[in-house]
Amino acid sequence: MTIKITTPNGGADSLDFGCAQTAIVATVTGTEVSSGEGKLELKTTTGGTSATKMTIAANGDATFTGDVSIASLNGGQLAGNRNRIINGNMMIDQRNTGAAYTLTGDSQYNVDRFKGRTYGGSGRFSAQQVTDAPDGFLKSLKVTVTTTNTSGTYGYSLEQQLEGLNIIDFNFGSASAKTYTMSFWVKASIAGTYTCANRTLGGGASCVFTYTIDSVNTWEKKTFTFPANTGFTTGTDNGIGLICDFGFGPQTSKLTSTLGAWQSGNYLFNSGQVDLMATSGATFYITGVQLERGSVATPFEHRGYGTELALCQRYYQQYGPHGNTMVGDGVTYNSTTAHRWGFELPVVMRVAPTGVLSGTCGLWNGASIGGSAVLGTNYTKPEMVQYDMTCNSGLINTTGLRMSMYLNTGTFTASAEL
Predict the structure, then answer these.
(1) How many CA atoms lie within 13 A of 100 on its CB side?
(2) Contacts of 410 (CB under 8 A, 6+ apart)
(3) What is the largest CA-CA distance in the chain?
(4) pLDDT tens digits in sequence order for the chain, 418 residues long
(5) For 308, phi and psi rounded to 5 degrees?
(6) Among the residues of 263-371, which ranges form H helices?
(7) For position 77, what pLDDT does the model report?
(8) Residue 383: strand, helix, or coil
(9) Cis check: omega of the bond before 321, within 30 degrees of 0
(10) Cβ-count burial of 396 within 10 angstroms (0-12 exposed, 13-18 middle, 19+ buried)?
(11) What is the pTM of this model?
(12) How many CB atoms lie within 10 A of CB 353?
């Protein structure tokens, strides 16, 4: 077997491995352009017939003509579920279906799995799923400042909390901890420095990066590799394992000048960053958020819409409003009371969810609708919801008669958010 390397200027070196049956030739050939860019080809020659098996182009793209056997991709699994962020392309919006929602306080969700943080501040911003997105994406999450508040005592960010069960293989707090990479697309109406921070359970440890938005209102991709967290443990159950924040309003008590390294303490911001909350109408967009093991940011993992929705429904499910729609089953006790209304959930939730009725909901068992339905005693489990219920008079007063809940302009939601 012979390995031969030929340079663009015609020089050549050969290594002979003493095998006559097959010659393997690695050839570096110059392109036809004057820049001298080239490519690397791996060829096999058998019986006088040469065939190209691998080509590496000048831009780094590799093409193989045969099967490829590799142990891992970027230090992790080969394919599927590389991205630990849920709804990173902002496609799922069960709560608002694309309508703008202005926060009225801290820790309020907008698109699924992303929530706005105000940390007690009086500043307010709206969050909305919009169709302004970079190539390859359909949706993004848009933040618009509606009530200004010069940051200092309070801070402002978008946040996703990752379940501990989903990052077990990161091995936080051990000698075998893994590096991981965060990538996302972002644009804003104010150029300058912003922060991306990760924290462990309870904010016990933090790692903060800064990044620069170079041009206003222009989509830019940002990438950071977080070092292995060998020193600080975190949750590894169905509670919080990792907290990811994208900061746009710095809070003095959470400022740090230590960047790109894990440290003890609850830090999210940097003193040199933009204070978006000081400008009314200022905007911040984000999409394509991906967090994956290893030190390389691979292309965004576009999971199927149904798959992404199911991942979101582990934490939140919404039913209605649907005009003249019945949901769930129970049994009538009297004209104003029903027992054990509920249904099996399509996705098992993280914990037994909290149910909420809003809008116009009633109970029905074959006659008129008993309005103003109210949830009573709770028997829910992660895989099902079940409640005793009351309503205005209207149910047929027959014990044991089957009943359902009537959703008109109302909704029933089940939440198991972190």
Answers:
(1) 10
(2) 320, 321, 357, 358, 359, 360, 361, 373
(3) 97
(4) 444 544 455 554 444 444 444 444 445 444 333 334 567 777 877 777 888 877 888 777 788 887 666 666 666 655 678 999 999 999 999 999 999 999 999 999 999 999 999 999 999 999 999 999 999 999 999 999 999 998 789 999 999 999 999 999 999 999 999 999 999 999 999 999 999 999 999 999 999 999 999 999 999 999 999 999 999 999 999 999 999 999 999 999 999 999 999 999 999 999 999 999 999 999 999 999 999 999 999 999 999 999 999 999 999 999 998 888 899 999 999 999 999 999 999 999 999 999 999 998 999 999 889 999 999 999 999 999 999 999 999 999 999 999 999 988 899 999 999 9
(5) -65, -40
(6) 305-313
(7) 56
(8) coil
(9) yes
(10) middle
(11) 0.86
(12) 23
**Cα(first)–Cα(last) distance of the chain, in Å?**
59
Distance CA 167, CA 242 (A): 8
d(CA 105, CA 123): 9
CA–CA separation, 247 vs 159, rounded Å?
9
C-alpha distances in Å from residue 128, one per residue of 3, 77, 149, 411? 58, 33, 20, 20
* Residues pairing with 355 in the sheet: 414
List Cα–Cα distances, 108 to 195, 328, 413, 416, in angstroms. Answer: 20, 28, 15, 14
The SS3 call for residue 4 is strand
Ramachandran region, residue 116 (left: φ > 0; alpha: ψ -120 to 50; beta: rest): beta
* 279: number of Cβ within 10 Å: 13
Which secondary structure element, helix H or strand E, spans residue 145, and what is its range?
strand 140-147
DSSP H or E run through 51: strand 49-56
Q: For the chain, give the number of residues.
A: 418
- The structure tokens listed for 152 are 């200092």
Q: 389 with 361: CB under 8 angstroms? A: no
DSSP 298: P
What is the rounded distance in angstroms from the CA atom of residue 291 to the CA atom of residue 307? 17
Report DSSP state, residue 307.
H
| Sign of the CA dihedral running 274, 276, 277, 279 | positive
Of the candidates 406, 413, 322, the residue with the CA atom closest to the CA atom of residue 361? 406
What would the DSSP string read from start to end of 153-164?
A: SS-EEEEEEEEG
The CA radius of gyration of the chain, in Å to the nearest whole number, is: 28
Burial class, 213, CB count within 10 angstroms (exposed 0-12 / middle 13-18 / buried 19+) = buried
Nearest Cα neighbor of 53 from 23, 91, 9 is 23
What is the residue whose two structure tokens read 């089953």? Answer: 329
